[in-house]
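Dear colleague,

Following up on Tuesday's group meeting, I ran the structure prediction for the two-component complex that the binding team flagged. I've pasted the input sequences exactly as they went in, so you can double-check that nothing got truncated or mislabelled along the way. The structure tokens for the whole assembly follow below. Feel free to forward this to whoever is handling the docking comparison.

Inputs:
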Amino acid sequence: MDVDVVQDALDANDLAKAQEWLNRHAPHEVAAELQRLDPVPTAVAFRLLDKDQALEVFEELDPHSQQTILEGLRDEAFYDLVESLEPDDRARVVQEAPAKIAHRVLAGLSPAERQMTAALLGYPEGSVGRYMTPEMVVLRRGLTAAAALDVVRAEGRDAETIYVLPLVDDHRRLVGVTTLRELVLSAADTVVDMISEEAPRAQATDDAESAARLMQEANLLALIVVDSEERVVGLLTIDDAVELIEAADTEDVARQAGASPLRGHYLTASVLQVARSRATWLLLLLVAATLTVNVLQYFEDTLARVTALALFVPLLIGTGGNAGAQSATAVVRALAVGEVRGRDVFRVVWRESRVGLGLGLVLAVLALAIGALLVEWRVAATLAGSLVAICVWASVVGAVMPLLARRLGIDPAVISAPLVTTLVDATGLIIYFTMAHLILPL
Amino acid sequence: MDVDVVQDALDANDLAKAQEWLNRHAPHEVAAELQRLDPVPTAVAFRLLDKDQALEVFEELDPHSQQTILEGLRDEAFYDLVESLEPDDRARVVQEAPAKIAHRVLAGLSPAERQMTAALLGYPEGSVGRYMTPEMVVLRRGLTAAAALDVVRAEGRDAETIYVLPLVDDHRRLVGVTTLRELVLSAADTVVDMISEEAPRAQATDDAESAARLMQEANLLALIVVDSEERVVGLLTIDDAVELIEAADTEDVARQAGASPLRGHYLTASVLQVARSRATWLLLLLVAATLTVNVLQYFEDTLARVTALALFVPLLIGTGGNAGAQSATAVVRALAVGEVRGRDVFRVVWRESRVGLGLGLVLAVLALAIGALLVEWRVAATLAGSLVAICVWASVVGAVMPLLARRLGIDPAVISAPLVTTLVDATGLIIYFTMAHLILPL
């Protein structure tokens, strides 16, 4: 579907056509379309949805679009929608929304629903507690499979998932986990303790992204969430975990390019928002880049005497930047997926210095050939020698910086390619002119 | 766990300690440890695992480590392991392994298992067919919920999942889908057709990554896979989908830094492999960077007359590169997650030119201040003016290139930050010297 059906239908004022499309497609497809629209058409399109479809589409939208829609709804529709949301989705709406809307959401809820939402909001931002669902089926240990199935049948309609079933003792403390699969496939008189396993768990205050990555590695459909006394308080389901991981990856990607993560959709975020997400780093990097000006000023005499040296400055620092970006990106990703840990510094340095040396030697041969065609051989030799040194240096610096960041408790993803490039630029120039002094008669 | 327990125990020849650790931890944790080891200790550690643990750990390993282990196993252990694998995992082992091992795997299988594996291998590489499991429970339409549950109980033990249950007609053609949740929660005499929904599906020959992203967006635990006649042939489960997405993201991240994706683990891939994954792009970019040499040669006279201009070359092209990398990365990611489509070119250009203008103006003010301190005001003005033009140009080029790539059927992720940076370098210099000719008395 590479055509903006809804946009086109709305532009043509053909509401019937838009309505037909919106109610005939899957919620995630409708959500993807709505997120591409400007605020007014978004609100119009949302009101064309049938009630059930509207709820499902709303849950698929990003927080930015959810707010746009809530702002546009009149009281009755507003409360209807908010009351029907799952508690964890509702908590996230409240968390992201401006105070006025958040207040309106909480005020419109039944006492029971308000309590559930407020409980989730009590956990720190970015914690598992904010993303878990409290709506699950918990089994007492000692039940037979048949009795457990009866519990599932009695309580399952309201649960977000019934596939993962925590087993608890009399104090609601977690003692194990079983699955609907085991319950259904086991003989009716099997005691659930016999078909339970040790349960991976997360504390409600744990970091949500780490919990999501744990689920991914351990192939869990839901992770049991406990409080500080090991009592079961919720489940983190795989759909929320996958979303958490995708959001974290998108943030890492933005940071890797030296930009803050953009909240909301690329096409509908305001130009000011986009510019702001990039401006801080660009400014900092510009200031850092003045180092290169200082270095060049320092070597101004050398440059004046051998003007041919100036020709290769962009090529040389560009290559250094590229090599540094490659190794930085590889290490940041390896850290994110858990292949490398903070204590691996020396192993990584040893690897990257050999990789850098290999790359530098290959590039030097090519550069020597190119340089010899354009300038005298000693300048070409300076270029080639500098390339080797700069490749080693850039590969090591690019790899070590994210590791140091992790050790200092900073997100390694802030060690962006542009940051590495900028730092390698200035040091690369020093290497280049030092090499020139060694090789050329200066 | 930030200590290499296994490595340390093996180094100390304390096999008992290693064995105890290996069998007490979850399979994904053991796999993460094994992947960090060199080939010989990997094989030793693997043989210390209990049989069931060994199987589960093996399934969690990346293809590279799987091969290392298979190569080290003697016949009996080899066939035991291979026969116990799920058909889809086995197909992937065969697909990645050198011919000799692949042959040994297939030869050791029972005829039924061999047929299932060969069938999966019949689908093109990277297709859904390669990643799906044929082991599922399929329901005939018209059954009651009770009868359907009996089918699940009879066939469920061998199925990879029983939560998603395709509904088929007499010719095994897909007519809908229901879930174990619905079966369990519905009255026993409910006809399954009444609790079924329209089934999202993928063709076995479809691209696996796209199918995985569809599952993520639609929050599916398993996606039904059909052949060209709509007959059900398998299920793509969420754990495989999540792995597919992670692998694709890791590839995109590598490409974004101008490197080929590294097959295997960062720490255990050979130095040669790592260097090779980066060399091609570095060489290409070095050749492209000779454009900057040509541009500088063309303007050599200008440079000789106003040597102060040379001081700002690294700063200027560095900033242009950073701005280009930011917009390229944003658009590549927006394309990957489906926020932007190929036809959005004009919308994106309009956005990015305004973003670039805003950023350029802010940077120009700062640059004017810095430049005025160091050089005469006309050079500073040249720098500031160039920054504005270069920011607009870089933001637009960075954003348009991935879109063009998509339109030409090339993976947008190959439009890496280094590629954009290198292209913006040469054009940025042209802008700079043209600006110099306009502002300075040359």
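The longest helix of chain B spans residues 377-407.

Cheers,
M.
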